[in-house]
Amino acid sequence: MDGVGWSEVPADEVTSTAARVLERGDVILFPELRFPVDAAESLLFTPAILGSSKNASYDPATRRLGGTTATGRDAEMLRAFIHRFSESAAALVARVFPDYAGRIARGRASFRPAEIAGRQSSWRKDDTRLHVDSFPATPSGGRRILRVFSNVNPAGQPRAWRLGDDFDAVARRFAPQLRVPPPGVGHLLALLRVTRTPRSAYDAQMLQLHDRMKADEEFQKGSPQSRVDLPAGSTWMAFTDHVSHAATSGQYQLEQTLLLPVDAMLDPDRSPLRILERIKGRRLV
Question: What kind of architecture, by CATH, is found in domain 12-280?
């Protein structure tokens, strides 16, 4: 989508189609929507601020900063930098998707200054492998995971993604391996503080799907997929609980997570929750 800025109201032809495009499982790219970086903030553009973490995180609700070794003035600058993006991303979503007005909740934001290619991690945490998003400690309860990304690479390098097959096809491929947990397990996990809220049967299945996708070498290499380079100075968004995706290379990215109730969608039947319920023949939330 061209001609969209951080502050002005998008044209009617943009807002009239954006939600439908997003809900059918596409990635929306704003190729010229560059997030501005102040000269002083360029000091933050180094993997050294991460320590052992893969990103510096920020919670807009508490203003808590995590995953960083930055202290003092550097930490305050980092907090202000991610906060500014978080505010801009949330405002952008509100303008591009007026149909979702008042229903979206803002989650964590992050800054990812490390090069993703070659980063050592377990297969489960390896985001270069195709997957759909599901958060182990913060169950969605069936809500959609909408994420806004911006490539702020100062050297002009793109962020490379692989995009996989439609969610329905992926879910049906792995459905026989997805197990519904025994009653009460989700609440027990919350009582033990393994999760922040009870993990629903849907969240349990989405976590299993995430893991099965990443662990299956045949799926990773042979399933339908394509590569796309997301240019520096661009912004994009997707329901990442729906879109099979993998980030294979790139450095210096901002990201904001937002959560949308299924009943706020134009077509709730396209949600992963409803698709999995149809496949399993039972309610999962």
Answer: Sandwich (2.60)
